[in-house]
Structure formats: C-alpha cells, structure tokens
Specification:
This protein is α+β, with helices and mostly antiparallel strands. Helix content is about 30%, strand content about 20%. The N terminus and C terminus are likely disordered. It comes from Citrus sinensis (Sweet orange).
C-alpha cells in the first residue's frame, strides 16, 4: 500500500514551447526556424542534404531575437548565392517525423492545423494539411531513389491520411488520461513511449539525436469531440476522447485477438471529461472517467473470403496456460489498477458455432488466470448477449446501464479542482506515492472524504467553484473493459450506456445535479448518444472499413425501421468490400507508418510477402511454425519486424513490474467464494432497500454456499468441475422472457406504492440499485452461486 501525504505541485509543462515553424532550403541544408509561443525568440534546426541515405540533424544552441533571426537568414542567403541562395519552402506547425525506405530520408510536416478543443487551457489541434519532403538534394540521389519500389513505399505512406482522426497538443499530454497527467510528473520524451503515440517510430531518430521533443508533435489516432452542454440552467464542457493503441494495430480480419506480448487488436481507450463552466482564471472543477475496448485476448483469427461474408473463427490452442491473456490483464492492471471488470457481449447460442467458441474459451481463460490472484484482485466477468436482446433497445440499454453502474461502484471516477495559470499550467493538490503503484489509492472509496466533497460541491449552487473549499481529489482505480467480436457496434452501444451513468455521477459530483440519475429520454442522454454514435462510426471506419451498425441508436431516435434496415445492409456491403479488397493495402500502410516493417535492399518487398505474418515469437519447432502459419496469416509481432529476434513466450513477461500472479498469494482454492464487494462509495450507486447497515454481499453470505451448490447440481464447466465462481455473471437472464426489465420493474412498483418508479420506466442508474435487485431471487442465487446461465 502506498503511503500518502498531501502536497501542492505545479504540473511540469514548459510554458515556452515551439509552435510555429518556417522551413528554408539551400542546396546543402534545410533550415527549420521555430518561434516560441508568445515570445519573439527563435531557435534553428539544420538538416544536411548532401548525404543520400543518412540523416544528420544539428540543433543550434543559440536563441535568437527577431533582429538576430533576420540577420542570420540574410547571412545564410549571402553565403549560398552561388548555388541559388536561401529559399522559403513552407510554413509549418511541427514535425511528424522522418522515414527511410530504400535510399533517401523523407520529412513529414504538419502544414495546416485546426483547433478542435481546449483542456484546462491547453489547445488541442487536428491536422488540416501535411507534406512529405525528401531530405537529400536531387543532385546526390541515385537511381534507387526513383525505383518502382521506392515510389510504391512512398505511396503507401501517403495513404495514411493524417488529416483524418489524428490530433495533438503542444502543451498538454493528450496521449494520457487527465488523471494520469495530473497525478504523474513524467514529461518529455517519455511521453512518446506511450502506446497511443502513433509517430513514436517516426520521431525516434530526431528525439534520440536532440534529446528533446521541442520540434516534433506527438500524434494520437482515434477520436476527439468537445461540446458545450447545459443542465439545470448551468453550462459545462463535455469532451470525449478515444485513443487507439499503436501496438498490434491494423484492420478487422488482419488483426484479431492477442499477440505474444499481450497486446490486443482494436485496443482503444475512451475518456469522458466534464468541466464546469466558470469565468476565466477561476478554479474549476473537473471530472473524467476512462473505459477501454479491445479484441478478445486469445489467439484466434478469421480468413477473408469473397465467397463468405462471415468467415469461420479459427481458435488456436497453442497457449494452453493463457500466458498472453495473463500479460494483457497484467498490463491493464498496471495502467489502471484493480479491479478489472470485463463486459463480454458476444452470442450465447448459434446454429453454427462461431462466437460461442470464443465465449467458452474466454471464460476458461478468466477462470484459469483468477486461480493465481487474490480475492480482491480477481477479474470480474460479466456476460450479456446483446445481439439476442437488441430488438428492444430500451431494455438492452437499461441492462447495460446496470452493468455500467456496477462497474462504477467498484472503480469510481476521477474528480479534482484545478487552477489554470496564465501560461497554461495546472495546479492541483494530489498524492505523493512511495511506490510505483498506479493509480494511487482510490479516495472515492473513503466515505469521509467522499461525504466532504459531496457537501462542499452541493453547497456551491450557482456560485463559481472558486468559492468552494474542495481539497480532496477522487481517483478512479480500475477500469471497465468491453468487447464483442469486432469491438465496434455492440461495444459502442455498451460504452454509451456506461457513459450515461458515468455522466450522471460526474455532474452530481461537480454539484450540477442533485441526483446522478439521467434517464434515457433526458436531453443530455440524447446529446450523449449523438456524440458516442459519431465516435462509433469513426472507430468502425478505422478498423472495420464502414460506419458502425447503429440499430439500437436508430430505434431510440425513432427512425423508420425500413430506413434502418437499408442503412444496415449498405454498411454490411461496404464493410465486406473493404475487408476483402482494401484492407490488405491499408494494413501494409499501417505497418510501414508504425515501423513494423522496414524495407531493406535485397530483401523481399512488403507486398511480396504472403501476408503480414512476418515472424512468430516463441515458436522454435519448424513443424509447429508451419502449422501455425497455416492457421494464422496474421502478424503476431510488435515492433521492428526485421531486427527483432525470436524469443520464448515466457520471456515476454520481462519488463512488467511484478506480474499479477507473482503479486498475489498462490493458492489452490481457485476463484473466490464470495461475491465481488459492491462498494458503498459516494457515487450514490448503492443498494438502499437492503438492510442499510449490511451490504448486499454480506447479507447473501448468511446463506450457506453448499446449499446453493446442491440446489443447482448441473452447474459444471467443460471439464466436469462444479462451478462456484462468483466473479462471473451472465446478464442474459435480465432480458429473458420471465425476467424482462418491465416485469422486474412492475414487481418493484407493486411492492412499493410510493416508489418513484411508478408510472415511468426506470433510469439506468436506478436499475443498478436494489430497487430492482431486491425483487429478483435469481440475482441473490448468483451472488452465492457464481456463473449460472439463466434461461
């Protein structure tokens, strides 16, 4: 446990940063001149051009005033008159990086930008225009620079459109969550090591040479949207950010599952930020919550085929001890802390087994991993067949909201009060830790602190937060991880449902709402649906090749069913065409941009390879390798394909601080015998109709477990062992014919004539409370029994 003490610190951003640049050229050199923001001071970077295949960069240590800068340009021009003098090439806003294919290096520049948002006074930009400029002068290039392969590689690089869905900030570490930025002091080059910085490889050379990152911009790929919203007559700024991981990145059928390093396909972190609207210079209250999505962390694949719109799922059994799956969850715990709540949305029943194959194997993997973890750190596994229950959108969203409320009761949210400084710095009271655990102790689970925050926030009414005396941040600890098969359509609906519940809690914590309940018909929920729908379409186009299937959202908007069906059909065809005919080239472009493939003279070109299965880590038996190649035509590598040597699977564990299994007590009991505790934190997501002094899980412990195992003797896993896994829950029973949301709510209303639910449908947050749970005996059975499939 980290020891804590309160300290005040100023977040270490450099208030003076280079933001506007001008590129000049002579025959022998490029000169990039950068001006510091809000000053008249200049720095100069020189890049040599007479070496055809080497990158030589020198940073002038001097700082120039306007007069000295102009005098320097004049002298450079005069010294190069014989070869044409100094010429203006372009104005730009940062260097994206440098890349080499077969001979010359190329420089990628941001030549146009657009401001798309502000976080705590720090501007965030998208790219309007970019350029690729060859470094060597044309007079020193050989014929190799004009070869067909060189041109094709350059065309591949150009196909990565930097003007779509890339964003950056000069002064704010946009690759990190707000909580991480405010609670960590790490800055500088270490930020480029983030899994969400897509030009990590492109900037590696210049960063290693200059030992700084003043000249480059760190690009994040995903989604950014900021809106001004209001509730109860008070304004707030809402920001939704999706950050796509550069590890194991690619397209739908070419990147599936997990690789040997525990990296999963379509790995996206989503952050929802709420900031109260206050006059400039006043302290502001701010809250954020993070959730993630990612492919099912098993070794599986699908082969694209123009004859089959739904290819078979191929599951590999090579990782029998689920080491890659374990690595994935260790990484999540390291980044977000515990608990990790897994919401699995894939199908439970199919005529021809496809998704159900992965469902069973994923469940087995969670059980296997949980055997080595302590009770409090075991993975919480929720399962809900969203496809089966999507015909009635309101029911599906309410059940998903209930699951989201349960996750929030375990993880909490991030909340703090910050003071923007004139130069854009942030001031925050935070926690100083004596160990490397992250995130710090989750204060949202400390009732005294939480109550203090609630009292002080609620007392603020319409007074700016500068008048509040809030000293205790609330930290999110743990994360909700959602997946379906593609982690696109169904996953986006679930993330929206979670976002609605989280927004209610955020607004309540900021004092903008008295109750955290936001009904699905509330204008705020509708505004949120539009933003999440746009995010879902954006992420689906990146990974799947078409906009998302939004049947549930269309129903909620009241869209004509025939129009919805037509839209869904067209998107299915678009996705099928993209996956079959476009994705291979798109995957090659991504591999080149990220440095996963680096061309070399005398080696096969990227497009000459059968697939992007460039090598397989950890398999040394030639027979096993050939067998694996026949099953997987997917890249299981991560990083430099040409230079990375094979290593044993277990060696990939190196580099993780204290793997989960080593941190926990290894016992023989297997999974927990008691339900995951549903914390009574300040979030108001509680269970009031049970005995107030005794939480739900404690009341259920009064029932002997053996009694329930005898009650349902048919609860066995695939090996014939009795299931007693209370970290598992199948939510499908909530939508079954005998236990629909409507039936459950009717029982609730009938039992309490004074209930606020009477005459209306419950909100998602209310569904998470005992207003519903108290009347469902099957839930009580789950609490003691574990994973039971209710039909």
């Amino acid at each position: 446990m980290a020891t804590e003490k309160w300290i005040d610190f100023t977040h270490q951003y450099n208030p003076c940063f280079l933001q506007k640049f001008t590129l000049y050229e002579t025959r022998s050199n490029f000169y990039i001149c950068g001006r510091y923001k809000k000053t008249n001071l200049w720095r100069v970077l020189k890049i040599y051009r007479l070496e055809p295949s080497e990158l030589n960069i020198v940073e002038d240590s001097a700082t120039y005033s306007d007069f000295e800068y102009l005098d320097l340009l004049r002298r450079v021009h005069d010294g190069n008159r014989s070869t044409g003098g100094l010429k203006l090439v372009t104005k730009c806003f940062g260097i994206v990086g440098f890349i080499k294919f077969l001979e010359p290096y190329y420089m990628l520049l941001v030549t146009g930008r657009k401001k798309i948002g502000v976080i705590c006074g720090h501007a965030v930009y998208s790219i309007k225009k970019s350029e690729i400029i060859p470094i060597p002068h044309s007079s020193v290039l050989s014929n190799l620079a004009y070869s067909k392969n060189e041109k094709r590689y350059k065309k591949l690089l150009s196909s990565v459109d930097l003007t779509k869905d890339f964003f950056f900030s000069y002064s704010y570490n946009i690759m990190n969550s707000l909580q991480k930025n405010l609670c960590n002091n790490g800055t500088g080059q270490s930020q480029y090591e983030s899994m969400f910085v897509w030009n990590h490889f492109l900037t590696r050379g210049i960063r290693n040479t200059l030992k700084n990152n003043q000249w480059t911009v760190a690009l994040v790929y995903g989604f950014f949207k900021q809106e001004n919203l209001s509730v109860a007559g008070r304004d707030f700024k809402f920001t939704l950010i999706a950050r796509r991981s550069r590890h194991y990145a690619g397209t739908r059928y070419l990147k599936r599952g997990v690789n040997e390093k525990g990296r999963v396909a379509n790995d996206v972190e989503t952050e929802q930020i709420v900031v109260e609207d206050v006059p400039e210079g006043y302290p502001m209250q701010i809250s954020s919550v993070v959730q993630v999505r990612g492919s099912i962390p098993l070794f599986w694949s699908q082969e694209t085929s123009w004859m089959n719109i739904k290819p078979d799922i191929i599951l590999s059994k090579k990782d029998k001890k689920y080491e890659a799956t374990r690595l994935h969850f260790e990484n999540l715990a390291k980044r977000y802390g515990n608990p990790i709540i897994v919401l699995n949305l894939i199908k439970t029943n199919e005529k021809k087994p496809r998704e159900t194959i992965l469902r069973a194997e994923f469940s087995n993997a969670i059980r296997f991993i949980n055997k080595d973890l302590s009770k409090e750190n075991r993975l919480k596994f929720l399962s809900y067949d969203l496809q089966k229950h999507s015909r009635k959108a309101i029911n599906a969203l309410q059940i998903l909201g209930r699951a989201g409320a349960y996750a929030l009761s375990l993880t909490g949210i991030f909340y703090c009060q910050v003071t923007p400084k004139p130069e854009g710095l942030l001031n925050l009271s935070c926690i100083e830790r004596s160990d490397d655990d992250y995130p710090p102790q989750n204060l949202s689970h400390k009732n005294e602190d939480a109550e203090t925050v609630d009292r002080e926030v609620s007392s603020g009414s319409h007074v700016p937060s500068a008048n509040l005396s809030i000293k205790v941040p609330i930290l999110q600890k743990g994360v909700l991880r959602t997946n379906c098969i593609d982690c696109l359509d169904r996953t986006n609906v679930a993330q929206y449902a979670y976002g609605v519940v989280a927004l209610g809690l955020q607004l309540k914590t900021l004092g903008l709402l008295k109750s955290p309940n936001i009904g699905l018909d509330n204008p705020l929920a509708k505004d949120l649906m539009g933003i999440y729908e746009t995010m879902g379409d954006t992420l689906a186009l990146q990974y799947g090749g078409s906009a998302a299937h939004n049947k549930i959202f269309c129903e909620r908007r009241g869209q004509w069913r025939a129009a919805t069906q037509s839209q869904e059909f067209l998107r299915t065809l678009q996705r099928y065409y993209s996956n079959t005919y476009v994705d291979a080239e798109k995957q090659n472009a991504i591999n080149v941009f990220l440095g996963h493939f680096q061309p070399q003279q005398g080696k096969p070109a990227l497009w000459e390879l059968d697939s992007d299965q460039h090598h397989i880590i950890g398999i040394h038996d030639p027979n096993v390798i050939e067998s694996a190649k026949s099953f997987f035509k997917r890249s299981l590598s991560d990083g430099n394909i040409l230079n990375e040597s094979d290593s044993c699977l277990m060696a990939s564990i190196v580099g993780h601080n204290q793997p989960l299994a080593e941190r926990e007590h290894r016992g023989t009991k297997g999974l927990s015998e008691s339900t995951p505790e549903i914390s009574s934190c300040e979030s108001d997501i509680s269970f009031p109709r049970y005995t107030p002094s005794m939480p739900l899980w404690k009341q259920c412990q009064h029932i002997e477990e053996d009694q329930y195992l005898e009650f349902d003797p048919n609860c066995f896993d695939e090996h014939g062992h009795a299931c007693n896994f209370t970290n598992f829950l199948d939510l499908d029973w909530l939508s079954s014919s005998g236990n629909s949301c409507e039936d459950v709510c009717d029982r609730s209303v009938a039992s309490d004539s004074g209930s606020s639910l009477k005459g209306r449908e419950p909100t998602a947050t209310e569904l998470a409370s005992n207003n519903v749970l108290e009347y469902d005996q099957k839930f009580v059975q789950w609490v003691t029994d574990g994973e039971l499939l209710f039909r």
